[in-house]
Write a structure and sequence with these properties.
This protein is of the alpha/beta class. It has a single domain, classed as 3-Layer(aba) Sandwich (Rossmann fold). A six-stranded mixed beta sheet has the order 6-7-8-3-9-10, sandwiched between helices. Strands 2-1-4-5 form a four-stranded antiparallel beta sheet.
Length: 222
Amino acid sequence: MTPLLEARALARIDPERHGTLLAPTDFTLAAGERVAIIGASGSGKSVFLRALALLDAPSGGSVIWQQQSVGAQRITQYRACVCYLAQRPALADGTVLDNLRLPFTLASHRARAFDRDAATALLLQAGKSADFLDHSAADLSGGEAQIVALVRVLQLAPQVILFDEPTAALDPQSAAAVERLVTDWFEAAPRSRAFAWVTHDTEQARRLCTRRLTMHQGVLQP
């Protein structure tokens, strides 16, 4: 399998207390893989995923994208291909449509155009009608906000998505909609896409993923 994303001795130190948040970690995500990362709260799962997404600067080590190190000059390109989805996504003021248009104002996606029909189709897959685009983001439930955040990512057709407990706070119906959208995105190009999914739910990990790893006190274990 072709490596898409790698971490080599990736580490994070607490900048205030100087304790180890993430021990030097090696990790490979290959095309076609669906990797679950499980572990207790506070074990370092989110720390690892955010460092891998380069949202928090690593204290050591490197992130490798398609066999090239991701330095400062490649971060924009990297973020066009590798997306991160948080458990509680931040939505901008305005409507659902405003939020779905937002990524195309960023440097990493300015070469692309927003496709309203494609976004509407994704929302329909999640059980949302076309008029959902006009809803105010401030009025959305937690599940609806997560679906909007996921559609906002999926419309970019990334090669890799890093999911940070995306269904942990959702009702069963919303969680099922999120899982269905992710499965459809992956199966549209299973030989060139991959994802890592942080979860507490071992049954969900078994259902969605083909490989499982465990995080314990900042150490990633097979």
